[in-house]
Design goal:
Oligomer: single chain
Largest sheet: 7 strands, antiparallel
Strand content: 35-45%
Distance between the termini: 53 Å
Helix content: under 10%
Structural class: mainly beta
Number of strands: 22
Number of domains: 1
Number of helices: 1
Length: 324
Amino acid sequence: MRANQTKLLKFFLTISIFIVHSISLWAQQVPGIEENIPYLVTFSKQSEKRWGDDDFSQVWFIVIPKDTKKPFYLRIFDPDVSGAVDEIKQEADSKTKFSVYGGKGAFTHPDATNKDPEGNYKSGTMIASKLFGNQPEYDNKWFNLGPFNPVEGELVEDFNGYVFKIICDGQEGNDGNLYKYFLSTSSTENIPLEGSNLFTYEYTFRVDEKPGSISHIYPFIDENVVSVNINTFDLDDDSYMRLVSVAKKGEKINGSLDNEWAESKHTITDEEKKTSLDIQIIKFREKVNNNIVISITNQYGKSMPFFSIPIGGVPKYKYKIGVK
């Protein structure tokens, strides 16, 4: 296994205790409730990147505890490309494919954890797949992939669990598919699978449209991180970004303009290690259909994961009182 993969596994070992204490009813929903993000977004291949999707594909991972015996379902809300939720350009003529991978290499293959869909990022064994188009019967409703047996995932001993990969690929067309995930033990309602978690390395989502609203994403900082680069694509001119942590009250993040990437470098203090950061997107004026892509790397250029809930809880700035 490559050195960076070994470091990544050690990273998960470091945070495992935080995960246990952070699991809540909404741990299995993506986007998470505490993120205040309406939907994930994936556009089809003939779309213009300036609409807010840089590569027309989105990858998420699921970790299932090793001792889990119950089967589970991946529930997808509004998987079709039509109706009021999705971003339709003229007519709804696009298709989106949702696929679940398990087995050897689903996570540990070097290409699987790249933030960009390149090389053999579809590594592992495809165990379920469904193509959606303009199908009103799925509009604004939940659809189930599964059931899945936990042992169908890739066993990663350092996680003490099985890892599955979800890939949403835009197919032909130029429309945007907006959707949500929920990891459930039931096929008819959202019942969380205790101890599980979901994460991604590049987050593509719809920004809340209400002026004054704040969306959040929460990367976890391990003890070896000394600085981070926050990369954003297509933030547009209706929002700005700031970084909040236990040591930062609201540090400005350099956000991107329309159809552009921007990079913002931030130093990590000792107080911030083994805590989550709060990357905030603040909406200051009304504008519809603002989609954004965000990724984060450490000082070595290695991608860092975003979790569906903040590991260790939502970070709160700790005011310091000087004593003379």
